[in-house]
């Protein structure tokens, strides 16, 4: 049975996601929240502590807390997959493999994946969507040791990350992200349903296991009208976040 403070925390999360409490606004006081939910202030305090730990609200002293973010934003301080991020927003993530082939590792592949050059590695071009609308192209190169497991996954699997965890117990533990902007070429424009030369947000990332073994490196290109990135600054935290474009 779910504890009452967990239920309250979840109701507050949904209210923040619906922008009943917008970023920068104050939550009601603990006394008001306790009266609203018919619980003690201690129960409310537990619920608020959970949201504070998640970075949704500030940890300022006093009876009222300021809203810092919603689950529509995904902090890159946590290594959450595209599908997990979409689910947190109440959206459906879709995926479709457009092309998949083995190629000899280039010098760049070898450096990023810590492999000898010419090692056969799996290249996958995948279109990702939110509620069926294409918003992201992933050009991913998988290391040789995990390529067969990726190759066996069905082309429309919504979350390769989750499937590899279920099938192989693989945990994507660390990621490095480099973000810039590029113009959509003819191929990108066709797959994303946008005009050629439209701006795209590019995220080049390398993901590794807990032991630091590279699993994949990818060139991800987001439609800039669908997804944006923001930085939340504070004294103790400077988190980059992915969110849907306003």
TrEMBL record:
UniProtKB keywords: DNA-binding, Transcription, Transcription regulation
Protein name, UniProt field: GntR family transcriptional regulator
Alphabetical list of InterPro entries matching this protein: Bact_HTH_transcr_reg (IPR050679), Chorismate_lyase_/UTRA_dom_sf (IPR028978), Tscrpt_reg_HTH_GntR (IPR000524), UTRA (IPR011663), WH-like_DNA-bd_sf (IPR036388), WH_DNA-bd_sf (IPR036390)
Listed SUPFAM superfamilies: Chorismate lyase-like, Winged helix' DNA-binding domain
Domain spans labelled HTH gntR-type: 2-71
Species the sequence originates in: Streptomyces lannensis
PROSITE patterns in alphabetical order: HTH_GNTR
Statement: the UniProt record of this protein carries the keyword tRNA-binding: no
PANTHER family xrefs: MANNOSYL-D-GLYCERATE TRANSPORT/METABOLISM SYSTEM REPRESSOR MNGR-RELATED, MANNOSYL-D-GLYCERATE TRANSPORT_METABOLISM SYSTEM REPRESSOR MNGR-RELATED
């Amino acid at each position: 049975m779910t504890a009452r403070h967990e239920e309250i925390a979840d109701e507050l999360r949904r209210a923040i996601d619906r922008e009943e409490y917008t970023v920068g606004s104050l939550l009601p006081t603990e006394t008001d929240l306790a009266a609203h939910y018919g619980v003690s202030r201690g129960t409310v305090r537990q619920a608020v502590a959970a949201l504070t730990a998640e970075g949704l609200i500030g940890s300022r002293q006093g009876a009222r807390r300021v809203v810092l973010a919603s689950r529509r934003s995904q902090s890159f301080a946590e290594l959450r997959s595209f599908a997990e991020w979409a689910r947190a927003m109440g959206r459906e993530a879709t995926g479709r493999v457009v092309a998949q082939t083995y190629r000899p590792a280039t010098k760049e592949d070898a450096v990023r994946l810590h492999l000898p050059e010419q090692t056969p590695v799996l290249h996958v071009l995948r279109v990702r969507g939110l509620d069926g609308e294409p918003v992201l192209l992933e050009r991913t190169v998988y290391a040789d040791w995990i390529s067969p497991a990726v190759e066996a996954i069905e082309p429309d699997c919504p979350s390769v990350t989750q499937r590899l965890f279920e099938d192989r117990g693989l945990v994507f533990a660390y990621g490095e992200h480099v973000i810039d902007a590029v113009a959509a070429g003819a191929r990108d424009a066709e797959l994303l349903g946008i005009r050629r030369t439209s701006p795209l947000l590019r995220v080049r990332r390398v993901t590794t296991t807990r032991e630091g073994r590279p699993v994949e490196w990818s060139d991800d290109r987001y439609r800039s009208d669908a997804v944006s990135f923001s930085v939340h600054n504070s004294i103790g935290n400077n988190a980059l976040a992915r969110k849907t474009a306003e």
